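Recall the central idea of this unit: under ordinary conditions, the amino acid sequence of a chain determines the structure it adopts. In this exercise we apply that idea directly, starting from the sequence alone.
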Amino acid sequence: MRISTANRYDAAVQSLQVRQADMAAAQTQMTSGKRINQPSDDPTGAARAERAYIAQQRIASDQRSLAASRNAMTLTESALGQAGDMLQSARETLVGAGNGSLAASDRATLADQLGQFRSQLLALANQAGSAGGYLFGGQSATAIPLLDTPAGVQAAGTAGQNQLSTSEQMPATVDGRAIWLGAPSGNGVFVSAGDGANQGSAWIDAGSVTDPSAVTGSTYQISFAGSGAASSYSVQKDGVATAQAGVAYSAGTAITVDGMSFHISGAPAAGDRFSLQPATPGLSPFAALDKTIATLKDPTANAGRVAQAVNSGLRDIDAVAGHLQAARSEAGSTLTRLDAIDGRNQDRTLWAKAVQSDAENVDMVSAISEFKNQQTGYQAALQSYAAVQRMSLFDYLK
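Accordingly, the structure predicted from this sequence is:
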């Protein structure tokens, strides 16, 4: 077979180019540490690496949302803890206001202290988060949650929560309306209260439920007649007289009505009235303090009204404190759940990185060995080309 000199040159040059390209590719893998430097190197592996990379970016986005949620829940838990401390201080102040030896001016001073606690509680309820919104803003985090109006503190935001993820529950806000304005009134089943026009020194306690099956949910009124040892009371249910009519009154003795038990203490005057109404989930610390402050600041309030205001105030503050403590516990549970999500995300990130590394990274030992082989092959091709070049007829003519 006849092979021309030009053909030999072309074959040798082509072999050199192929060897050089292979060596360059091996060198690129060795220096970059990646087996796939462009999709054409391994389309299937490149697709696997790209999916793993996208998964990492998605997890990183979730982690940013988680960090924002954790910050919001930490601030919320702290705010509710401070609110609990303030309510405890307000409770101690209110206990002091129940001292019967205090003058009207002394009670007014204590009422001013309670007003300061109220202002601090409102500031906590309207506390801003680190992202510029309000912690207790609900679904309208940019609108102030609670407004102080002449009619009392009212909700201005939208109920609910803002979530930072569709797959995991990562709240950025909490429902301020439910937390600050949604405590159960009274003892949780019924609310006992004295009439503001009572003239005697009697007051009614929070009461308790003795037989849940007998509770009717009706409204009751206890009216007094006579005075001193001749005092008696009658009970009406939804405005209708009951069998308890003209019952002799004994201070501090339990009175039971349809599964509900309560005590009336002190000396009632004729015409004094007390009521029992079904409890509702609409009590706020502001309303509880407002009623108490109004009575303590009233210089005409008699001993019975003051005692009733203090007793009812303590009952309501305890109910609100328990409600806020439950909300604080929920915020703590959310923080625990966010920590668990963080752990899962870190595991997912590690898995995605392992998949990406397995798909595109190169075994360095193998890469070095491959480069050495390609280098040896290239040197052999160069030597072969040099030998072919010396076989030219002009070399023989020399």
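The first helix runs from residue 5 to 32.
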